[in-house]
Structure formats: structure tokens, C-alpha cells
Specification:
This protein is mainly alpha-helical. It has 2 domains: about 35 residues; about 200 residues, Penicillin binding protein transpeptidase fold, CATH 1.10.3810. It contains 12 helices and 3 strands, in the order ααβααααααββαααα. A 3-stranded mixed beta sheet has the order 1-3-2, with helices on one face. α4 packs antiparallel against α5.
């Protein structure tokens, strides 16, 4: 009986090992493919398409995105993006050390980098509650993978194409057309800042009609854009 139990355990371990190996190989292949190809669809997009506000998106290349948008995204979401390896350690420490009352504010102040947000949007799922804790390990894994295989410019390009920028509106081209009736490459500084200001909750912080939060936030983003203008590391990414 003991021999049978040991044999059964070894068989289970072999099966688990094969499943893990297949999952790792599949994720690696898909990550590398996304270095050149846009993700066909994300979990969040599929969910919105079936149960939300529909799915409006139009992927565009790097040269079809206004420099203003790239600068606004870095200025608002992750000013250390050109320098870090995927994680902003100081922001994470601030989030972990925040008191319960301040935790929500601290977490929203940049604990999640553009790289982490891209990994979450492309490969995983959105949402809070227990799901966010289950997501942490694979999010860290995919964040490192895209940092190692994509590079900063590709990460920012994919980020600006897949994130939600309004109810059912995904990516900067769809947002630009919906809000300003123009292509993403033609967005002004103010228009770019207004769209980016809807993050991280574009279903609540609406661009059109402009919510109080967007009206309050976008001038601040423009000020930060002015501060970052000409920074060598930032310019190296967005040029």
C-alpha cells in the first residue's frame, strides 16, 4: 500500500511538473510574440465586450501616437519609468508602510508602475478584493518578462494601446477619436493630459463629460510634463 501511495504521489508530481512547464513555455512564447504583435484581446477587453459597454479599440504604432501622450503618461503614472527595472521600490515601501486610513491614497500615488500596469492589462485581469492578491506573483513575473524582452519603448506603446480610457474605450487612438474626433498623433498637450487624467478609473473619471477629478488633475499633469520636458532619460524613451 505504501509503495502504491509513493507511486501515486510521484505520478501527480510529474503531471504537475509538466503542467507548470507547459504554462511557463506558453507564457514565454506569448510574451516574446507580443514584442512585435499587439495582443489580440485582453481579459478585461473580452469582459467589457461581453458584459460591459462594448469594445472600442484601434491599435496604432509608436509613430502614430503623439509625443504629448507619451510624455503625459510618464508624467502622470510613472515618472521613474525610464530608470527602474519594472518596480518602483520607494513607492511600494510607501504603500506598505501607510496606515489603513492612508493606504488607499498611498497605493494610488504610484505603487504600480507602467510596466506593472501593462503586464496586468495584457496577461492578467483587473479588479480588487482577493483577486488582486492572487494576481501579485504572476504580475511580478510578467513585469520582469516584458522588461527583459520588450524594452521601455515597446512597453509604453503597448500600454497606451491596451489600457481602458473610458467605458468600453481601449487605447489612445479610440479615446482620441471618441473625445476629440482626431487621430492620436494629433493630440495637443492639454488633450493628452485630459485623457491620461481619467486613469486609474476611467469609468468614473470621465473625459467627456469632464468629471471634477479630470478637471482638477489634468492641469497638474501638464505642469509635470513641463517639468520633465528635456529630461534625457525621458526623451530617450519618447522620441
Amino acid at each position: 500500500m505504501a509503495q502504491k501511495n509513493r507511486t501515486g504521489k510521484r505520478r501527480i508530481l510529474r503531471i504537475v511538473g509538466r503542467v507548470v512547464l507547459i504554462m511557463f513555455a506558453s507564457s514565454l512564447i506569448y510574451t516574446v510574440l507580443c514584442r512585435w504583435l499587439m495582443p489580440p484581446i485582453t481579459i478585461t477587453q473580452a469582459n467589457d465586450g461581453m458584459f460591459g459597454k462594448g469594445l472600442h479599440r484601434s491599435y496604432v504604432g509608436w509613430d502614430q501616437i503623439s509625443r504629448n501622450v507619451k510624455l503625459a503618461a510618464i508624467a502622470s503614472e510613472d515618472q521613474l519609468f525610464p530608470e527602474h527595472g519594472g518596480f518602483d521600490k520607494k513607492a511600494i515601501e510607501r504603500s506598505l508602510n501607510a496606515t489603513p486610513k492612508r493606504h488607499k491614497r498611498a497605493a494610488g500615488a504610484g505603487a504600480s508602475t507602467i510596466s506593472q500596469q501593462t503586464a496586468k492589462n495584457v496577461f492578467l485581469w483587473q479588479g480588487s478584493g482577493w483577486g488582486r492578491y492572487v494576481r501579485k506573483v504572476p504580475e511580478a513575473y510578467f513585469t520582469l518578462m516584458i522588461e527583459w524582452t520588450w524594452g521601455k519603448r515597446r512597453i509604453l506603446e503597448v500600454y497606451l494601446n491596451v489600457i481602458e480610457m473610458g467605458p468600453g474605450i481601449y487605447g489612445i487612438e479610440a479615446a482620441s477619436q471618441a473625445y476629440f474626433h482626431k487621430h492620436a498623433k494629433d493630440l495637443s498637450r492639454a488633450e493628452a493630459a485630459q485623457i491620461i487624467a481619467c486613469l486609474p478609473n476611467p469609468k468614473v473619471f470621465t473625459v467627456r463629460p469632464m468629471s471634477h477629478r479630470v478637471a482638477w488633475r489634468y492641469p497638474q499633469i501638464m505642469q509635470q510634463m513641463d517639468n520633465l520636458e528635456g529630461d534625457e532619460d525621458v526623451e530617450d524613451v519618447i522620441r
